[in-house]
Each structure stands twice: as structure tokens, then as C-alpha cells.
From TrEMBL:
SUPFAM superfamilies: Cytochrome P450. It comes from the Eukaryota. It comes from Linnemannia gamsii. InterPro entries: Cyt_P450 (IPR001128), Cyt_P450_E_grp-I (IPR002401), Cyt_P450_sf (IPR036396), Cytochrome_P450_Monoox (IPR050196). The lineage of its organism: Eukaryota, Fungi, Fungi incertae sedis, Mucoromycota, Mortierellomycotina. One of its GO terms (molecular function) is oxidoreductase activity, acting on paired donors, with incorporation or reduction of molecular oxygen. This is Cytochrome P450. Heme binds at residue 314.
Length: 374
């Protein structure tokens, strides 16, 4: 039912819509830099929406509790009903998300039924899903109930927002610590797409962004190097034996992308280094350069699961990836990033791998050289 909303054509049509908040965020950050006395500013680049009740509600659900509490909720079903403060906050957060989601569905369904969509409106993911659902006759034909539709949209908001936000945050961190990578990505964007226009017309397209080999390699490598969802789980459907271990039917198994992605037996001795070149076409390097790079080949991809794989592959993988690229374009064209001396953080694995206590970077205007041809 949900697959058509994530089709190639629909995602291509959504790019201008997805670019609007990305461009707005870029301008907000540029304004902060321009307002500073010395042309640079230090702030937390972790993507959040202060004051937004839905954003705060999801933050409470996904990152606002300890790992111990998360484990108790997972393995002790009645624990969520114990009236501890964090459980009360959890219920309040769920209630807020459900109420807002119901309002979104009601508003978009009314516009669809009234046929009031103009050329730009109605091309967002939720409108596409609701419209497709309205066109299905009955529940027996596969139509989603309002409860099911609400649950799907809640998933898209929660999973889609948090994972994209942390991916971009970690990518900006990588740019700050790898200035050569930052420079190459910016130059590739400038050379093939150019600067954002002043008339607010979106210069981006799905095909143009996916035709940038170095940007593509950087995003793939970031998803390997710091997977936004570090762990997932499965339940054994039958008795099995793996590497000498008995796995009884019903066993709850945790799979760690964060561990798989760092296997030196797969990715080589530099598996714990950020190296986007490993994802690129070997023919684009000299014979001497090729000797120092272990390129990713199809037989290695079993150990690459940022979006899982096979029938359980994330339905929103292409949607999320293009969203990351759009954000990076607007945050990189006119800004550059450097690490804050002495700032320390740790990786905090919850539902997503967030930097704790955030990611503070030095941000300043990138000075374009009008005499340089990229």
C-alpha cells in the first residue's frame, strides 16, 4: 500500500518541496554567521526544531530516556504502565503525536477531496499516501483504516526525521574534521549545479544530485562509518545453529550495523577510517592510487545494512538519501565548518546514533572566488 508513495517518480517530484525547509535552514544559519562580530559563530548543528511540540515529543520518545529504561520497556511489557515520571512523559508524547497526525490527515484529506491542490501543493509524502488510499475501494481491497494510516504517518515522521537529522549532523562533523572532503563536495556541487538562486527557485533535481559521484560516495561512507540506526533486531522463526551457537526458535537477536560496518575482514585495515573513495569507480583513479584503496564490491554488501536488506529493506531509503543530499547542498554552498577546539562528545546509541551533548562546530561564510572555475 505504501510502496507507490516511495516510487522513483514521486520522489523526483518531491525534491522542490523537500528543498524549501532545507533552504530556509541554510538562510537561518547564514544569518547567524552574518550577525556575528568576527564573521564566524559557534553553535550546535544537531538538527532540532526548538519549540515544536511534535519534534520535542519524538525527542522524548527516542532519546529522552536511558538505555536501561528502553530495555525494560522492550522486555518487560507491563513496565510502561508503571507511573514513573518518564513513563508519564512517554504517554503524553504519544498522545501529542497522535493528535497532530490526526489533524494532518484530516487537513490533507479535505484538500484532496475538494481537489484544491495546485502545482506545488500535494506532492509531499503524506498527501501522496492519503490520495492513494482514497482511491482504493474497500478494506478488503487493501485500503488502510484511519488507525493504520495514522500509524504509518507517525512512523514516517519519527523514523524519517530523526535518521535524516543525525546523518546530516554527523556529515557536518566529518566535513569539519576532513576539510579536503568538505572542499571536494562543495566544488563538485558548484561545478555541476551552481549556487542557490536569489529568486528562491529550486536549482536541484533528483537526477542532478544523484549524478555527483563524490557526494554519493560520501553519503554511502557516512552511513557505513556512523550508521544512523546502529542496531536492529530479529526473532528466530525456527531452531538454528550459527557459528557453533545454538539459536532456539523465538530467540530475540540484536544485529549491529555499527559492528558489521567496521569489519576489517570485509572493508580492509582502514575500515575504521572515513574513506569515501572506497565507494567510487576504480577506473577514476590511477593504477598507483587503486593499490591503496579496497573498493566496495557486490560480494561485500552483506556487511552494509544502513537500510537493512532484501524484503525488510527500508521502504524510505531513496527518500531519506535524497533528503540528506538536499540538506547538505543548502548547508554547504555558502557556509564552511571547522571543529571547536576542546569540544568533546560521545556517540549515544538509542533508536538513532546521536552525538551527546550535541555537535558544536565553528561555522563561517564560505568566500566564493569569482575568478575560479570549478
Amino acid at each position: 500500500m505504501c510502496s507507490p508513495a516511495f516510487s522513483h517518480n514521486h520522489i523526483k517530484e518531491m525534491v522542490p518541496t523537500m528543498a524549501i525547509p532545507a533552504q530556509t535552514l541554510g538562510k537561518i544559519w547564514e544569518g547567524r554567521v552574518d550577525a556575528s562580530e568576527n564573521g564566524s559563530v559557534e553553535f550546535n548543528v544537531a538538527l532540532t526544531v526548538p519549540g515544536n511540540e511534535v519534534s520535542q515529543a519524538y525527542h522524548q520518545l527516542l532519546t529522552g530516556v536511558s538505555l536501561t529504561t528502553l530495555m525494560l520497556r522492550l522486555y518487560v511489557p507491563f513496565y510502561v504502565d508503571v507511573p514513573f515520571k518518564h513513563n508519564r512523559i512517554r504517554k503524553q508524547s504519544i498522545q501529542i503525536i497522535e493528535q497532530v497526525t490526526a489533524k494532518i490527515i484530516q487537513k490533507k484529506r479535505a484538500r484532496i477531496l475538494a481537489d484544491k491542490e495546485d502545482s506545488e501543493d500535494g506532492k509531499d509524502l503524506m498527501s501522496i499516501l492519503i490520495r492513494a488510499n482514497e482511491q482504493i475501494g474497500t478494506l478488503d481491497d487493501g485500503r488502510l483504516t484511519d488507525t493504520e494510516l495514522k500509524a504509518q504517518i507517525m512512523t514516517f515522521i519519527g523514523a524519517g526525521h530523526e535518521t535524516t537529522a543525525v546523518t546530516v549532523t554527523w556529515m557536518l562533523h566529518i566535513f569539519s574534521t576532513h576539510p579536503d572532503v568538505q572542499r571536494k563536495v562543495r566544488q563538485e556541487m558548484l561545478r555541476n549545479i551552481g549556487l542557490p538562486t536569489e529568486d528562491n527557485k529550486c536549482p536541484l533535481s533528483y537526477d542532478a544530485l544523484n549524478a555527483l559521484p563524490y557526494l554519493n560516495a560520501c553519503v554511502k561512507e557516512l552511513l557505513r562509518f556512523i550508521p544512523p540506526v546502529p542496531n536492529t533486531s530479529r526473532v528466530a522463526t525456527h531452531d538454528d545453529k550459527i557459528l557453533g551457537y545454538d539459536i532456539p526458535k523465538g530467540t530475540h537477536i540484536v544485529l549491529s550495523a555499527a559492528a558489521w560496518h567496521k569489519l576489517k575482514s570485509v572493508y580492509g585495515e582502514d575500515a575504521e577510517e572515513f574513506k569515501p573513495e572506497r565507494w567510487m569507480d576504480p577506473s577514476s583513479f590511477s593504477e598507483e592510487e587503486q593499490k591503496s584503496i579496497k573498493f566496495v564490491t557486490p560480494d561485500m554488501t552483506w556487511a552494509y545494512i544502513p537500510f537493512l536488506t532484501r524484503p525488510r529493506n527500508c521502504i524510505g531509503s531513496k527518500f531519506a538519501t535524497i533528503g540528506v543530499k538536499i540538506l547538505l547542498y543548502y548547508l554547504l554552498m555558502n557556509l564552511e565548518y571547522a571543529p571547536v577546539p576542546g569540544f568533546k562528545f560521545k556517540k549515544s546509541p538509542r533508536f538513532v546514533m546521536r552525538p551527546d551533548p550535541g555537535m558544536r562546530l565553528i561555522v563561517k561564510r564560505f568566500q566564493h572566488d569569482t575568478h575560479v572555475t570549478y
